[in-house]
Amino acid sequence: MIEALRAVLLPLWPALAAAAILGLPFGLVGWRERPAGFWGRLGLILAVLGLAGAAALAATGRVPGRPGLWLEIALAVTFAYLAGCVLGALAGSFRRRRGADPAA
Questions:
Q1: CA pair distance 104, 95, nearest whole angstrom
Q2: What would the pLDDT profile of 24-63 be if each residue is shown by its tens digit?
Q3: Domain boundaries, the chain
Q4: Using alpha carbons only, what angle is made at residue 46 by residues 43 and 49, rounded to the nearest 5 degrees?
Q5: Record's superkingdom (predicted)?
Q6: Mind spelling out the 3-state secondary structure of the chain?
Q7: What's the predicted TM-score (pTM) here?
Q8: Are 17 and 77 in contact (CB under 8 A)?
């Protein structure tokens, strides 16, 4: 399992790094408040369920061959982007808490 992950992720480090770096500014400016209303919460719940379902498909190996590889690559890049978004949001929260953001 570890060798398979290493074989998939090692050649993809530039894409994973780019996704994480791209997620940083979006997390920095994007997470100022919660999703508004019913539809915002429903969209967030459906996105999390879809991502969890895709991760479960990849983890169990239900999608064989090249489509399975594409699914694993898409999930790895998506999780790298989301990690960058979370880090950017934490940095923005820390910056606003310290009083360095006059717009907050």
A1: 10
A2: 999 888 766 666 788 888 988 999 999 999 999 998 989 9
A3: 65-103
A4: 150
A5: Bacteria
A6: CHHHHHHHHHHHHHHHHHHHHHHHHHHHHHCCCCCCHHHHHHHHHHHHHHHHHHHHHHHHCCCCHHHHHHHHHHHHHHHHHHHHHHHHHHHHHHHHHCCCCCCC
A7: 0.78
A8: no
